[in-house]
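Here's what a typical entry looks like (DNA polymerase IV):
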Amino acid sequence: MIRKIIHVDMDAFFASVEQMDNPALRGKAVAVGGNRERGVVAAASYEARKFGVFSAMPSKIAAAKCKDLIFVKPRFERYKELSHQIREIFYSHTDLVEPLSLDEAYLDVTQNKQGIETATEIALDIKETIKREIGLTASAGISINKFLAKIASDYRKPDGIFIIKPHQVEKFIEALQVKKFFGVGKVTAEKMHKMGIFHGKDLKRYSLPEMLSYFGKQGKYYYEICRGIDNRAVNPNRIRKSVGAENTFSESVFTKSEIIEKMLLIVSTCWKRYDQTNAKAHTISIKVKFDDFTQITRSKTIPLAVETETVFKDIVLQLIDELTVIQKIRLLGCSLSNFEWEERKVEVEQLTLGF
């Protein structure tokens, strides 16, 4: 089966979040984690990478490579918060989402919720939505399987997109350096180089028994991927517990009329995502973050599931009406949760495999 797989990878995620939240760091060489004397770099901004600073590098070496490097403490709760928002954007297109970490995931969009014809259009929509709603950039790779999609996402970084179409697979892999194969580490690459294997075309010269003899069980994987074979399915590893949307404003809001105006737009986005699931929610929540970064939430649970956008909107507005606003608001959000699930209806259809 030919699938349409997207691999989305956020660009320098931790460092980009710090630069987004602190304008003084924008355009600067930033390292998240460690300090000038000890520790390890967890993430580096693209400005720092120009000096050879990368994640997993000892902080002391990083500081020596870039004298103006700014070290900041990691804020994992903040990264998790944004990662959750990003995944909600993924789920608006497909429930087949396999997160690999806070900042990357596979999506199977062979069939998608919005009826978009090509995987390229979906990837572009995801990138634009992340940029518009969250303020960060992502890169995307698109191909027929997970192996190729992950490699493709690294080709146009940052803020890029790269597609490997079915008819391009063989030629692409034959020209690909084995050290860039996902799953081929430094030691294995060196072993392959000693065997005269530098590119995919060199790897294809070896039979399956030879691969198993030289590389053990992993030899089967190498034998298949150099031929473009990767039958691993995108494996969603959790049941969704909520659907939400939120927005951080470029200019904070204060008056009730401003808050309602902004929230109604967020309600519309949230409902579109909820409407594409098979869930029936009983709890509606709002989230408010003030200029001093303090945050409050308010919720209401109802006995009958939320069936219409009007009911959802009315309860959100009721929760807002009960708010006491004491300072300007930088972020508003709303969500639906406490789900019961309908049985999914499966329809057999001829797939359009546009890339």
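Residues 15-72 form a domain with the MutS, DNA mismatch repair protein, domain I fold (CATH 3.40.1170.60).

More examples are in the samples folder.
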